[in-house]
Amino acid sequence: MAFRIPSIRKASLSASKGTNVPKGYLAVYVGDKMRRFVIPVCYLNQPSFQELLSQSEEEFGYDHPTGGLTIPCSEDAFLNLTCQLSGQ
């Protein structure tokens, strides 16, 4: 029996890929270049990720410049967090 471990998926910023988010995942924009990542929704329940969501709410409110969820941290910090959350 195999287990599927949720992982982060890197996605492009092109409009054709903008709506291509698999079920159970969420697109977020991170860093100065607003790089798009697709993450499992189960990350939203994690306290460390909820802290990022609180920072996002403080900085952007509900008016995100990209139209999607913008996370106000560096790409490196975001990737470190998602690696920890995925257990790698």
Can you describe what's shown?
By secondary structure, the chain is of the alpha+beta class. Helix content is 34%, strand content 19%. The protein has one domain (25-87). The protein has helices spanning 15-18, 47-60, 75-86; strands at residues 9-10, 25-30, 35-40, 69-71. Strands 1-3-2-4 form a four-stranded mixed β-sheet. A hairpin with a 4-residue loop joins strand 2 and strand 3 (35-40). The longest helix has 14 residues, at 47-60. Mean pLDDT is 78; it is low at 1-5 and 10-17.
Radius of gyration: 13 Å
Number of DSSP strand runs: 4
Strand order of the largest sheet: 1-3-2-4
Mean pLDDT: 78
- Termini distance? 20 Å
Described by strand count, sense and barrel closure, the largest sheet is:
4 strands, mixed
Helix content: 25-40%
Question: Spans with pLDDT under 50 lasting ≥5 residues?
Answer: 1-5, 10-17
Q: Return the structural class.
A: alpha+beta
Give the ordered list of helices and strands. EHEEHEH
Number of helices: 3
Number of domains: 1
Beta-strand percent range: 15-25%
Shape: globular
Task: Please summarize what this structure is.
The protein is α+β, with helices and mostly antiparallel strands and about 90 residues long. The protein has three helices and four strands, in the order βαββαβα. β2 and β3 form a beta hairpin.
Name the features:
88 residues, alpha+beta, disordered N terminus
Helix-strand blueprint:
Elements: E1 9-10, H1 15-18, E2 25-30, E3 35-40, H2 47-60, E4 69-71, H3 75-86
